[in-house]
Design goal:
Helix content: 40-55%
Number of helices: 10
Number of strands: 9
Oligomer: single chain
Radius of gyration: 18 Å
Strand order of the largest sheet: 2-3-4-5-6-7-8-9
Strand content: 15-25%
Length: 283
């Protein structure tokens, strides 16, 4: 069933489990995510990000994701992640996305706050939920890489002011996490996560989840992370599945699809189990 983010993350916060958000830039990815969530009776979030639109345009993504979410036997939130422009966020809403992240984290604080407040008012009037980001989650691949990441960590007291004035439904935090593959094991600031969670009362979001250790996930969820973003792991799994199929003698695209989907399902299964969301759609 198609729901918004609050219908998935508020129960997760109350009961202390995490929910996976997975980007799905083709139907095979979408199948792997939703079919696995159904098998495990787990709520799930699925969508795409503005940086991924060159791989599959937003309108095309909506054409397969929205109907699949509506038909699913578990709650599915279709989320537009890291929207960089209000135009694209509004387009996602018009296409049927039930949640958006408007990423203004590289703006100064007041600009981020003002833009998020305007977007939140626009979205809430349409039953759409909003994720904001405070601090800045860099990446591990060069562009946007931060020399001193701790300078951009989310400040708990500032977070209270931010969520109060913007009205956002969830908050992405910078606590030592980064997008892409980790060159070195990250050191997450778990005490900061707990403090932000306690002070804001909102579901918190961990970006850059691919590559973190299992114990990192457990600790993060235990301290208030309710949504974990995963893309690199599932993206690489799809490629590994194709390579496995080629090695097994599959000689056509249609013959490779089952290998691709099963490899991605394995990652989704692992993450949903790790986050504690298995069976939560039954309650």
């Amino acid at each position: 069933m198609l729901v918004n983010m609050n219908e998935i993350l508020l129960p997760a916060r109350e009961k202390g489990y995490g929910v996976g958000f997975f980007n799905a830039v083709n139907v095979e990815m979408a199948r792997a995510i939703i079919e696995t969530a159904e098998e495990l009776k787990a709520p799930v979030m699925i969508g795409t990000a503005e940086v991924l639109l060159p791989a599959m345009e937003l309108e095309r993504v909506a054409e397969y994701l929205i109907p699949m979410a509506k038909k699913a036997s578990v709650p599915v939130c279709v989320h537009y992640d890291h929207g960089l422009t209000p135009e694209r966020c509004r387009q996602a809403i018009e296409l049927g996305f039930t949640s958006v992240m408007y990423d203004c984290s590289m703006d100064d604080y007041e600009t981020n706050l003002t833009k998020l407040k305007e977007m939140t008012e626009y979205c809430h009037a349409r039953g759409v939920t909003v994720e904001g980001e405070l601090g800045h989650v860099g990446d591990n691949e060069g562009a946007g890489k931060l020399e001193n990441p701790s300078d951009y960590f989310t400040d708990p007291d500032t977070a209270v002011d931010f969520v109060t004035k913007t009205g956002v439904d969830s908050l992405a935090v910078a606590v030592g996490n980064a997008h892409g593959d980790y060159a070195f094991p990250p050191k997450l600031d778990f005490d900061r996560i707990r403090e932000i969670s306690e002070k804001t009362g909102l579901p918190l979001v961990l970006h850059g989840g691919s590559g973190l250790a299992d114990e990192d996930f457990r600790q993060a969820v235990a301290r208030g992370i309710c949504k974990v973003n995963i893309f690199t792991d599932i993206d690489k799994a799809g490629r590994a599945g194709i390579e496995k199929g080629l090695a097994a003698g599959a000689n056509s695209m249609t013959a490779l699809i089952p290998y691709e989907i099963e490899a991605m399902k394995e990652v989704v299964r692992e993450k949903l189990t790790l986050f504690g969301s298995v069976g939560q759609a039954q309650h």
